[in-house]
Amino acid sequence: MTDHPAITISRTLGSGGTEVGFLAARQLGWRFCDRTILRQAAQTLSIPMTSLRHQEERPCGFLERLLNFIAVASPEVPFAPPLDLPIYSRELFEAERNVMLCLAKNAPAVFMGRGSFIALRDRPNTLHVRIEADLSFRIRFLLERGKMKDEASAREAIKASDRNRAAFIREISGLDWQDPRHFNLVMDTSKDGIDACAARIVKEVSGSSTDGLRRSYFAHGDRSQHGSGHGGETA
Fold first, then answer.
1. Which of 43, 161, 189, 212 is the most buried (most CB within 10 A)?
2. CATH number of the domain that residue 23 is part of
3. Cβ(117)–Cβ(216) under 8 Å?
4. Count of domains for the chain
5. Which domain, by its residues, includes 151?
6. CB proximity list for 149: less than 8 A, separation 6 or greater
């Protein structure tokens, strides 16, 4: 039986990667998997759903309302109180990995963050995407969406997010989160724009047969590099 195609998206805080993923999923007619991953993992670990409600942000605009309804604990939400179980614990990652593998079996899907490029790294027919942006774009993105009150707090949130995400990926896999070789497609929203990045993903997938989606670097070692490079600002 042919595996359903899947896309994983890793993104930096303020890059607009969640919007890119949502738009790509909508255009492809695929399932957008963000909140459902955490919800099902929480059920597996017996974490009350009330512990997750604080992850959602106040809506800002139509697309933002949609994203905040379906996305929990995204990188575009910098701070949140701790859960009963630390959100980036290995136990939670394993639970989320099992959820992602199960979801990927059922239908074509776009998976947002949560180490999905590692969770699905050995899976065929899976495109691994990284979304980045320069520092000024990321700061402006957070400020314009009302997620941070000023430039200083936005800058600090970005540094903390980059540092914590790099530590999380290193802890669960020993890998460098910023290494572009872990991804089939690396794009910069500050250069290309959110809509264009989503369109590029759709084109990449639509131009390939189901069996032709690029496999991960982990399984094959070398691959061609696509996109704008990896110029995102990180800590």
1. 189
2. 3.40.50.300
3. yes
4. 1
5. 6-227
6. none
